[in-house]
Specification:
By secondary structure, the chain is mostly helical. It has two domains: 63 residues; 36 residues, no CATH class. It is built from three helices and no strands. The chain is rod-shaped, with a radius of gyration of 26 Å. It binds zinc ion (ZN). The site of zinc ion (ZN) has 7 residues, from loops.
């Protein structure tokens, strides 16, 4: 989504710039009055996308999940830190083995 915003913005700005250059070189047709706005809008979208991308990564780091048992930084995609994740999986395995008996 954010990548699309960056890519789309750059693409729009580049397309408008190319159109503007072509219009200048070919003289006809005259450059449409909105090319400048499209370039500015495209660049703004790209910059906004880049800022959102940067802020998103910052926030992700800030709101990194904590282990529910000890409060240390959790393993990515888990609610436990490394040692507690191992502990939990071992416990889970033991439980399932007991169920089978
Ligand atoms: Zn822990």
């Amino acid at each position: 989504m954010i990548a699309l915003l960056i890519f789309g913005g750059i693409l729009a700005a580049a397309a408008a710039a190319v159109w503007l250059v072509l219009a200048e070189v070919l003289v006809w047709p005259p450059p449409p009055p909105w090319t400048g706005r499209v370039i500015a809008g495209g660049l703004a979208a790209a910059v906004l996308g880049w800022i959102l991308h940067w802020a998103g990564r910052r926030l992700q780091k800030f709101f990194r999940r904590r282990c529910i048992q000890c409060g240390r930084e959790a393993v990515k995609g888990s609610i436990y830190c490394g040692p507690h994740l191992r502990e939990a999986t071992t416990l889970q395995r033991e439980r399932s083995e007991l169920d089978r008996l």
